[in-house]
Structure formats: structure tokens, C-alpha cells
Amino acid sequence: MRLTKEPWKSPIWNRRPTFLHSNRPLARYVGRPAAEFLKIEPAGGIVLLACAAIALLWANSPWSSSYETVWGMEIAFDFGGFELHHSLKDWINDGLMAIFFFVVGMEIKSEIVTGHLRQVRNAVAPVAGALGGMVVPALIYIAFNAGGEAAHGWGIPMATDIAFAVGIVALFGNRIPSQARIFLLTLAIVDDLGAIAVIAVFYTDSLSMPWLIAAGLLLATAVVLRLLNVWSGPVYLVIGILAWVAMLESGVHATIAGVAMGLIISSRPLLDPTVAHNTAQELAQDGLTVAETERITKLVRESVPPTERLQHQFHPFSSFVVLPLFALANAGVALSGETLGAALASAATLGIAAGLVVGKFAGVLLATWIVVKAGLGRLPEGTSWLLMGGLAAVAGVGFTVALFITELAFRSGDAAMLTDEAKIGVLGGSLIAACLGGLLLRLAVPKRGEALEDANEGR
Description:
By secondary structure, the chain is mainly alpha-helical. The protein is built from 18 helices and two strands. It has a two-stranded antiparallel sheet with strand order 1-2. Helix 8 packs antiparallel against helix 9 (233-250), helix 15 runs antiparallel to helix 16 and helix 15 (347-373) packs parallel to helix 18 (419-444).
């Protein structure tokens, strides 16, 4: 029996419907619209942008002093004499962001094993574009800051923000070919992999070998359990938390533990989906007992790759809790006349902005053009070079990971005063890149109602 358009009136309900499906005003005018909003593709980027705007307004309001007070609040946890003591901002950057990178790790694993990166021919162009989009921005930044106190920030303009980039492309709907979307997503994932490597190698202050060895042993234990076909979620959760603590204490950024656990999770199902489906159908033919219902639930669960299932579970929390909190804690910059004046004259600000806007565009487009013309890779089906230019420009929206690396690059000593200037470069460069990318995409895609093939004229 199908539900009616008004589920609360459907005879399928033996009791009163749940709150979200009820006819209550709060459910009708707040609950269901909010649930529908969270389903749209650009929703994560919209929430992230809103939180960044709130952080900027807060940091420049009459209550600006409370901004630093709130995020600088110390929070400590004591476990039998072992104490973890960090500010609220650090708990978000080192703790919650590990969940974001855990999701990124699973996305990378899925793409390599079963996705677009599995076929070398398809992967060459976006991988080359990602590498060009990391190297050229870093070189531009170094050209501005070589030998200066801000030289350590060369990794900042290398980043691409997946949520914003995919959200901008999603605004154009099906007028952008699906293969072009996959190209951008693959590029952003490879870009994130590069950023993770840069964080691990170049933004680690000091190492504690005992803790690093402990983290390595814990991750190795997870790999062995995975090879032994151990599928217990709580076991990996405990190992992941312990590995995060060990990585935090080792000096290597703790979010690396999240990436590593994401890469360890299996991207193949335990049960063959066809066999599981047929077995479930057989069980459902003559009615279901409680035991049979539980068995079908288990069959369905284990016929889905763990990476896919966990991404489905963690992605909303990552997109609508972790990243918004990160934006609130890190995007607040006091934009006084003096600060803006210093930023406009700062080599760090100019290097980051130029790297994101010019470097990303030139690096992605040039590297892609070289491999395509050399016959090593191919453009996504239905994609013009003008459209590729739009995707390359959108890749310059660095926001989340760029701000993250900013905090690592300028977090100590005299370099700490460069943080605000670098953040202004990230925010300004990302905004310009988003506008430029949106304009190029608008010029490249057909107008609503026109045939999609018109987008190939510039190829």
C-alpha cells in the first residue's frame, strides 16, 4: 500500500505517524522543509558558507571579544592520570576534523577500488589536473614569499574544497554532463590526498617516536583484522580512537589517523548483492517472523560495501556538523581598515589569492590539456574546453582545507600574526575563484531547455 501525499492520513499507520510525517505546523513548515533541504546537493556548501559568514559577522561585531573567548575555552579529559587538554577550537580542528578526513579516506578508497580511479584511462586526466592544480599554486605562492617569514605557508593554496566545488557545479543541474562532475570530484579527492600527504610530511612540528610507533601498531592491527575478515564496527571504532590519541601525542597531525582508518575500511561487500537479494526474496514470500526480518536486515546490510554504508552514515554529520563548526571556529577574521590594509600589502595574502585564482586555473587546465593532447588521457564525455576552464576555476575554492593548513602553518611563534592575513587570502581568493568558475560554467553550459550537445561546440 502506498503512502498518500499526506502520510498522516494514510491507513498504513496503525498508530499516530511520526512527528516529521505528522500534520503539526512545526513539522509542516520547519521539519519537512529542512529535511528536504538537507537532501539537495549544494546544501552542505550553503550551510558552510552561512557559517563562515556568521563567523565573520561575529568577529567584527560589538561582541567580537566573545569570539576568541568561546573558541579558546579550555576543555580537558582525564583518563586515569592521562590528560588531554585543548581549547575548543583545537578539539574541533584536531578531533572533529578527523571524522571529515575519515570520510575523505573512504571516498578515496572507493574511487580507487570500484570507482573512476579504477580505470587508468579515465583517471589520468583528473589526476594530472589535480597534480597541476597543486604544484602551480605552490610555486606561485613561493614566488611571492621566497625567503620571507611566510614561506612556510606554501601548502595553503594547494587545497580544493569538495563541498563548495561540487555545490557550485550542482547549481547548474543536469546542464553539466555527469562525466564532468565525476572529473571534478575525482580531481578534488586526489587533491585532498595530496593535501593529506603535505600535512603529514611538512606540517609536523616534532615527533615522539614511541607514540608514532604505537599509532602504527594500532593501524597495522586494523589492517590484520581487515585481512582476517573481522567486520565488527565497535572493534574498529576502539582502534580508531586509540590510533587518533596516539597520532595526536606523536606530533603528526591527528587527522591522519582518520584518513588511515578510512583507507583501511573495505570497499567491497561481505556478501554478493545478487545472492543476498535472492535469499531475501525467498524469505519474504510467506510472511516474516522476527528472526527472518533480522536475517533480511543483515543480508541487506552485508551486501553493501562498508565504505558506502559508512559514508552514508557519516557524511551528513561531517557536512552539517563538523564542517560548519570548523568554519565558525576558523573563519572569524577582524576586518578592520588596518587589517585589510596590511593584508593587501602582505605577500602571504597575495600569494594565497593568486595561487587559488590563477594557479589552480592554470595548473588544472594546463596539465589536463597536456595529457589529453599527448593521448594519455581524455576529456570527460560531453565536455568542452570552456567547461573545463570553469571546473578548473571552481577547483580554486580552497576554503576548508586551506584554512586548516593555515592554522598548521602559522600556529606558533612570530608566524602566528600571519594567520589573519592568510585567512583573508583564503576567503578572498576562494570567493573570486567561485565567481570566476560560476561565470565560465554559465558561458559553457546550454541555457535551460536547450540541447546538452551545444556544450560541445567549444571543444
